[in-house]
Design goal:
Length: 64
């Protein structure tokens, strides 16, 4: 049990004294970058999916 308590104390020291946290502005900039990249990637995947759907509909319509 003592090892576990020491581990928790060391974690608290690490997070409060040794870790460098980003500023609020850097955090917001990073969040916007992630959001923008996610939206762009979703748009690309949507576009590729739409193209393949259109192609497959054309292929399947040739059978009839």
């Amino acid at each position: 049990m003592r090892k576990f308590v020491n581990y928790l104390k060391e974690c608290a020291v690490e997070l409060t004294q040794k870790t460098t946290w980003p500023t609020w502005q850097k955090l917001q900039a990073s969040a916007l970058l992630v959001l923008g990249t996610t939206v762009a990637l979703a748009a690309v995947i949507f576009g590729v999916d739409w193209v393949f759907q259109t192609i497959m509909k054309a292929v399947y319509s040739l059978k009839h």
